[in-house]
Amino acid sequence: MLKNDQLDQWDRENFFHPSTHLAQHARGESPNRIVTGGSGAHIEDRDGNKLLDAFAGLYCVNVGYGRPEIADAIAAQAKELAYYHAYVGHGTEASITLSKMILDRAPKNMSKVYFGLGGSDANETNVKLIWYYNNILGRPEKKKIISRWRGYHGSGLMTGSLTGLELFHKKFDLPLTQVLHTEAPYYYRRDNLDQTEEQFVEHCVAKLEELIEREGADTIAAFIGEPILGTGGIVPPPKGYWAAIQKVLKKHDILLVADEVVTGFGRLGTMMGSDHYEMEPDLITIAKGLTSAYAPLSGSIVGDKMWKVFEQGTDEYGPIGHGWTYSAHPIGAAAGIANLKLIDELNLVQNAGEVGNYLNAQMHAALDDHPNVGNIRGEGMMCAVEFVKDKDSRTFFDPSQKIGPQIAGALGQKKVIGRAMPQGDILGFAPPFCLTKQEADEVVSKTADVVKAMDFS
Ligand code: PLP
């Protein structure tokens, strides 16, 4: 076994890490962690630390670490048939079975699943499918996609454009021109503090209508949104938001894409986030929770309305010109089947709802009164604590103070992993669904200890 110092050197010399301060990492100025194992809600590193991972990796290890059922399914598939492609009608028992299992769990009016590898490529697929759809319908001008500020939809060219966070645009010449951004449904950060939640929803709707009016509805193809904003700050939508937005989209014949990469397969205590908020999407993006990250796999679930047009398109123009070598990879599909079975057998969707509510309630009880905690919010197994300089005037800290990262760092010292969300001083939690109430108590008590010990001046 290689020693830590050897690996540390190789890491800093050879490995280009995503979302990392590259220069500091290469110079050895920022810490690294070499992860060696995991079980349930915990991971272990090479230095012998055992940490409670209250962010489930990147909100993806939903069934928890170290599940032999999924590892065995992957091994069995690899031995039997590690790979065959899915082009021109080919498939495997695993990929076919998994598509059926996904549709059994999807909202009504969904028709087929296209498989990819990660959330970003699934959303790239979605944009192509939306453009194809409007071209087949003879509406070549109807192509722009509306996304929200603070939405997260990936970091490819198109998906990085859809993502509404500065960090993902800065110095990358993004967003591309086909993408438009509208108001984030983030009530706590509303400009007008006198607005009620209902008035704020009206404001979001008015902003969307304004944008559609300005651009022309005949140029706008689709609206993409996460049922609850994830990386943008873990923000549940204000009451009535999705119903009001869907009304506008229907009126202008604009497709709805529900990006369920985080919420799909149980995170909100319902199988899909669309069920939770009564969304009726035309396309659904799935990834992370589909395999609980035991193997890379994503999907685009296509609704009946679009599917019919795709059939018409291939009758007119021949086979669809879209596919990846690894679409519907059998090892990913085998992991997906074992994962979805485990979620059912262990009642994990219900547990995500129950323990998630408990986690949120305890976080409120522990920190609502703290003078620098401005807002605690969440839904199901998602929770966020937002820090402010002054609670009454809702004054935020200067980002250079790095309050969020400092708090997440101090929590890590106490062996609990939370995530400093990228825009604002927001500490996020999205634990595995198997979290117990005792583990939730540990997350809350250590968070409260860190926050109370923090120098906010
Ligand atoms: N969509 C959402 C809602 C996400 O949260 C993410 C990743 O966090 C993505 C898409 C992109 O997924 P990936 O990182 O697998 O490309």
UniProtKB/TrEMBL annotation:
GO terms for cellular component: cytosol. Its cofactor is pyridoxal 5'-phosphate. GO terms for molecular function: pyridoxal phosphate binding; transaminase activity. Gene3D superfamilies: Aspartate Aminotransferase, domain 1, Type I PLP-dependent aspartate aminotransferase-like (Major domain). The keyword Transferase applies. InterPro entries: Aminotrans_3 (IPR005814), Aminotrans_3_PPA_site (IPR049704), PyrdxlP-dep_Trfase (IPR015424), PyrdxlP-dep_Trfase_major (IPR015421), PyrdxlP-dep_Trfase_small (IPR015422). It comes from the Bacteria. Keywords: Aminotransferase, Pyridoxal phosphate, Transferase. It holds the Pfam family Aminotran_3. PANTHER family: AMINOTRANSFERASE, AMINOTRANSFERASE CLASS-III. Belongs to the class-III pyridoxal-phosphate-dependent aminotransferase family. This is L-2,4-diaminobutyrate transaminase. It comes from Maritalea mobilis.
